[in-house]
Amino acid sequence: MPCSEGGEDLLCGLRVLTYDVCEVRPGPNLNMIVGANGTGKSSIVCAICLGLAGKPSFIGRADKVGLFVKQGCLKGVVEIELSKTPDNIIITREIQVVNNTSAWFINRKPTTLKTVEEQIAALNIQVDNLCQFLPQDKVGEFAKLSKIELLEATEKSIGPPEMYQFHCELKNFREKERELENLCRDKTNSLEKMKQRIERYKQDVERYHERKRHLDLIEMLERKRPWVEYENVRQQHEEVKQSRDQAKEELKNLKEMQSPVTKKIQETEEYFKSLDMKIRDKAAEIKDISQKCKQKQDALEMKDKQIEEIHQALRMKKDEEMDRQRKIHNTHKMIEDWKNELNTMEVCENLQPQTDAVNNELKKLQEERANIDSDISDLTAEKMNQEREKKRISDRLGQLNNIMNMKEENLKGRFRDTHSALVWLRKNKDKFKKKVCEPMMLEINMKDNRHAKYVENHISANDMRAFVFESQEDMEMFLMRDHQKLRVNAVCAPAESCAESLPLRPIEELHRYGFFSYLRELFDAPHPVMSYLCSQYRVHDVPVGTEKTRNMIERVIQETKLRQIYTAEEKYIVKVSAYTNLTLSTNTSLRGAQFLTSSVDTDERRQLENQAQDINNMLESLDMRLTTLFERQKHLERRDNELRQQKKELLERGNRRRQLESKIGVKYDSLRQLEQDAINLEKESEQANVKIKEINTQKARLVTELMHLIKNCVSLNILKADLVLQSTTVAAEKNRLESEYKAASIQLRAAEQQFRELDDKKRVLTENCKELLKKARQVCKLSPDQYLPKEFQTAFQALPTTLEEIDAFLNEEKTRASCFTGLNASVVEEYNKQTQEIQQLTEYLEEKKNELDNYKQNISQVKERWLNPLKKLIEQINEKFSNFFSSMQCVGEVDLHVENEEEYDKYGIRIRVKFHSSTELHELTPYHQSGGEKSVSTMLYLMALQELNRCPFRVVDEINQGMDPMNERRVFEMVVKTACKESTSQYFFITPKLLQNLTYNDKMTVLFVYNGPFMLEANKWNLKAFCRRRRRLGRMDEQ
Q1: pTM beyond cutoff 0.70
Q2: Strands (E), 713-770
Q3: Fewer CB under 10 Å: which end of the chain, C or N?
Q4: How far is C-alpha 872 from the geometric centre of its chain's CA atoms?
Q5: Residue 348: pLDDT band by 50, 70, 90 thresholds?
């Protein structure tokens, strides 16, 4: 195979796949390898790929190189001679089947795979590039190449050697640039955060120094304070000592002045006591006389009460007599009224007959009421029994309706549109002419839920949710309703019912095979549904078997000739081939039931509904009878009340006269008793006056005695008053003396207390002075005999001189120092450390930014050297590709597809084609175009690369398989025209067929591949001899 520099025809020898020995001598231009399928055309392609260090995966036929050796052989050899100036290169590959290894030779000398790859790369041979080497099994993959992959393949195939290298460098540079940008961004953020953090540290450091100044000032204030305290206490000690001496002199003078006053107070005290004894004696005498006066006054009051009681008793006698007279008058009046009524009353008539008549009617009425009450009780009991039975039936129907509701919920969850249509149907049933059945999954009721799987596996899911109509017109109206857009299924039952269709044979004949029923007998359904299922699914003629049927299935199929069979867990479908008349069967496992597991016994439900209707009729009849009885009962109650009122009036008319006579007699007895109880008021008044007179005499005697006692009490009170005046005078004098003495004593005690306090204070201050002086020396770290240093005296002069000012200043400084919390010497260390890190990071960031700028500059340079040639190259490809398509009355374009100019790994080549004038340009994809269109597009793209190609050869294997004859002819002509030019590289075109009357070129080389048991061995074939023999035979035919 000649390289791009040109050369002579080369030899390719191989012993792989279908060949024992084969030599291929291709021409320098177009080499068309023709042969029937299976003769070994692709074996030549495989040999070229494997001989030029290609991997098995490039071919797509096997994953191990040993599998390319002809079956039965242990070793295969591929030898390829490549044209190169000044000397050709012969590459040999020996393939060992046993260990799947290869041995490599260059010019018959052993070498390594790496050396071979370097030699091949130097000649720009790329067997892994679909733009250069397109084996048969990789033709479809070319259309699957992404735009990015197609660009890389094109660059490798026809671009300058540095183009793909520049592209790779750009991708690497861009990746590195992206990494550096992210790194710089992260480091910049980190640097900014560190600067912010060190700014905070800077403030902390300043605060730390500020706090140190405050602490130093606090320390100096705390040193001065003990000296100020000592000086203050020393001055206080001197003042207290002087005050103590003055208090001692005053105390001595007060003690000398207090002695005469004490003696005079004692004399006054004795005289006051004698007067007090006399006053108490007079008070005792006055108290005794006053007690006697009190007794006399109490006796007088008692006499007044006795007189009042006598008057009260007399008044009560008078009131009692007046009440008796009034009662007598009222009794006379009542007797007179009753006598008048008795005189006016008629002679009592005989009322007994009327009373007997009323009693007889009451008796009959009570008997009739008893009969009615008995009837009502019987009917009520019967009604209660019927209502209990109705409740039982209603509960059972509720259970059955719950099962139906479960089935509806299942329908709603799986097929929401079908459920919506069901709701609409129930509201609009009056719009249909004939019966409409709800979805089959609701209408079908299994007799045994275990058999539901057979019915569900036999009936399609679409029909399970389909509505069944008896009228085609009703079904069309249901499906064409314009106010809803629901996806529902509907079917129409056959015009002639098939529900009662009979099976071809009775089920009893199939019992010996394990069949126990036909599908139709396993469930109940409305007549239209059953008719449809018999017509469409022949449920009346599909038997259901058991495990016994499964075990003898071959015999069942042969003997019964059944077309569909169900066993315990499988479904069998039997067919007879129309060509071979052989019986074919397929079996599938049964799916679990989903729709029909909950079934309702329709016979039971129908029977319960009939019973419920009968009970309702019975209850209506009982209610009517009870209503009649209740009305009759009310009428009898009214008549009973009327009769009882008549009887009461008759009885009252007979008893009135006897009652009046009895009342008059009782009142006469009461009148006699009242007349006997009369009271003599004059006698009672005289007796009361005698008693009052006697009591008044006793009162006069008591008054005389009381006046004598009062006179004695007055004289004693006068004597007592004189003694009290004398006592008061003495007490005042005594109090005056005591007050003076007390004031002097208080002054004396105060003087003593003041002296003691001042003496104690002097002693305490002396001790305090010693302690404070000692403390002040300790604070300043001075010895007992050492004076205050001059530097301390100088510092103390700048500070406040009083304790209040020092304490205020100290508190202020402490408060300021306390504001600087959380600070220590480590803050300064951290600040210095962070400052150094920021400097290092700044230098590192500057270095990376410079590196990033260099990468951007490199990218700009490499991009210019890569992109401009690439655009020109793609423009050339597009021009040739478009011309090829134009010659076929089609349109094709090739352009550079760019999503983002900076994303160099996203650049790609986009192929767009249009094969029909009525369509738009579409991108070539594995899915949009047909197989022939993809083949034509692939072939024309490769042809567009042909003249630009710098690879030494190109291989295309059976790319014309999917083309129609017209496109195949056009493509062939383009291939011949392009590949036979002087400037093009060697071209291998493999095809199993050729159209008639194709255009050929003298520079073409046609290689016919034949293979078979009667073919000559390759080393025995002599083409020249064959041609001579063929010419000789031709001349003989002419003669």
Answers
A1: no
A2: none
A3: C
A4: 58
A5: very low
